[in-house]
Amino acid sequence: MSEPSKLPSRDMGALLMAMIDGEADAVEVKRVRAAMAADPKLAADAEAYRLTGRSLARLFDGIMAEAVPGQLVHTVMTAGIEGRRAAPAVRLVVARAPRWSGWLDGWRAPAAVFAATAIAFSAGLLVNGDVLHLAVAPVTLASNDPLVANGAVGEALSVSVTGAERNVVTSSGTVKIKMVETFRDSAGAACREYEAQAVVGPRQFGVACREQGAWHVKALLVGGARTGGQTTTAGDELGTALDDIAARIKSGDVVSMEAERKLIAEGW
Amino acid sequence: MNRVSDEFRERMVAFLPRLRRFAYALSGDAAQADDLAQDACVRALMHRDQWQAGTKFESWMFRITQNLWIDKRRSVKSRGVHQDIDSVVEPAGVDGRDVTEGRLTLAAVMKGMEVLSDDQRALMALVCIEGASYKEAAEALGVPIGTVMSRLARARQTLHAQLVPAAQVPASLKEKARE
What is the predicted ipTM? Predict the structure, then answer.
């Protein structure tokens, strides 16, 4: 890496940056490339700036792959809403697990995991966590103020058949929503397990049940951010965790495809 | 606090990984980053009406976060939090000297970020980490595009100057390897 050169002119310096950032047009790129060909120092600077940019991006990759702390999700979902109670004092595991080994370490403690999910359900809840390190933070919502899936997820829950992937364009980008399974809970309500993935951001794995004409979210795991087109392993583990949670809600067999189509047609 | 729809909240939840990353880039400290992200979310929820549908949600959130960070920094009158290099998430690198070089570079970049002003750091985070266009960065920070360009140039040159010693080490390592 070289010392930064004194750029030939202020304009060329700005153009060099613009080219690196993809903000220069074709004519400007040509001009900068010609200048770089004539001045190796300028070319070295360009490479150094690119390296800095790549290093910066890599430096913060890790935080994108981490599960978002449950307390943070809880704050967003409940702040300012009267009737929603604060998170329970017992926070089962903290989210920033990679730097310490907690007393609940992944699936190696199945009994404890069961306890965690059971407590969360009895609280009637939002669950969030990175299952690889089992960051689970149950959040209690008041029974008369449930978390209801609306918007893109709510629509997909109402109209998508199992296995179909639905691309929904939202103002924050395209979100892929896929129904994993439809089943009934012990009260006979239709429930659906789903996955949602934004182009950038964490994956969501949820179970929602149809109650009083709305999709009530019974469990929601958020994590496994996708970076560089790859989904982290944590996301796959979260999916497995939700399967386990869904199995606890499920009563009887999975709803058949034919019965599912009928439910969709009849508006659940 | 005004009534906020669940859809808006879900959108904010989906944005949290990027918000945390931005907050981390600003503060250089994981715990402070989560506090900052949480404060930004609460402020955004309180002022939900100030965000207009059709405008960029991300830019609005980044701006709130940046303003909060500046407020925090002013209130403590300190020169930022120093990041323990050992606690920086290590990259998935390759074996041998490249790893050493990579670590040195990343550590130096982190150190270099501390030297930047708050405005420069926010801009580097938006453009180099979040991939924002100049226009988006200008919108997020509330400055003209010309200011974005000149500030970015200064930030890059400052960072580059910080990295020079790190670059010299790998060069010397290469010399040693040839001996």
Answer: 0.72
